[in-house]
Write a structure and sequence with these properties.
alpha+beta, 32% helix
Length: 183
Amino acid sequence: MTSVSPGSPRLIATVDALRTALAESTDLLRSTLGGTIDEETAAAAEADGVPREFLDFCRVLDGASCGPSLQLFGLEEAEEHQFYCGPVVDSPLGLSPAKLFCIGLSNDTPIFLDRSGGGVLGIPDEHREWVDAERFEPLAPGLEVFFLERLATSEYTRFASVDDELVEYDDWLKLLRRAGLAG
């Protein structure tokens, strides 16, 4: 289903399983999974400074809306949200567009890709306002691992802070279960 891409066989199989389950699930929101980007789009974005790891991921899955509180951006959305990487007065975080690339939001808190090491970074849960955090928290060693281990498994409910009373109504979790990715 997914065209030739730099994604791992596991990522491609996971996204294919999600796409198949979504196609068979008329009761779930259609906007849950993004499409893919082509080579020409990826090359132009890379020339504009978008990290290759993010583009490689978008060649397999160009964004995913994992419920009301968690979104992994597609290329177009990511380009619109890079203001999160800019310095904020009095923030102890080392925010810099040269160091970070915003790849999504979790509960209105940005999720970043570290441009130098490729790791996915977030803010520790104990901070009410993300700009007041004193440090970043490593979420995964890379974007593909972040998606496969945090968003495409039962771990999603913990990571996205899905309320126990609302878990049965969560369309992303329903999709994961139908795709055989969560119990």
